[in-house]
Amino acid sequence: MATARLVSGPQVQAIGLPGDENTPLGEALDELADAAEGAVRGLKDYERDDDHLVEQALMRTLKRSAFRLWERRPIVSATVMRV
Questions:
Q1: How far is CA 18 from the centre of its chain?
Q2: What is this structure's pTM?
């Protein structure tokens, strides 16, 4: 049985994404993690119960946020693990 409660926040990793003097990679990853967490919080309870909808929301948000930061469209993968 799925639960709408988050056990921990999204973990964001960067593979092939640059850090630069304007946006160091650590700050960018924090920004992406905040965006991902906001995307999950913005879902309705019944949407949070559906792993596929959560993954889609995360991927959409991370792609949009990464493009805003670097003007690149990275490959994004999201996996929901429930405890």
A1: 17
A2: 0.77
